[in-house]
Design brief:
about 100 residues; mainly alpha; two-stranded antiparallel sheet
Length: about 100
């Protein structure tokens, strides 16, 4: 990591009272599962109902447990109506050596 890059933990300390996704002011925040943005409650709730949410949580868990990678930045937020590409999902499954089905 270069000295200009920040870890998710350093980004969490950078909360300035505005959601880094929608820009709304908020007293509450959490880090996105999809990337390192600090997001408000409505943006967090949008993630929880996203069709790729369970996949992203599994990938995050495997980065922690298999790779001991605590600064995984996530695959990126595809937007409320977007989806992670099949190519990205396949690459992550190969890298982390797991299989994923939509029923999971």
């Amino acid at each position: 990591m270069s000295e200009n890059e920040s870890t998710p933990w350093q980004q969490a300390e950078a909360w300035e009272g505005k959601c880094q996704r929608c820009g709304e002011e908020s007293v509450w925040h959490t880090m996105s599962w999809f990337n390192t943005e600090l997001i408000c409650d409505p943006c967090d709730k949008a993630e929880w109902v996203h069709p790729d949410f369970a996949f992203v949580k599994q990938v995050d868990f495997l980065y922690l447990t298999k790779k001991r990678e605590y600064n995984y930045p996530g695959p990126g937020w595809p937007g409320v109506d977007g989806r992670l590409s099949e190519e990205l999902k396949t690459a992550l499954q190969e890298e982390l050596e797991f299989e994923w089905g939509e029923e999971e």
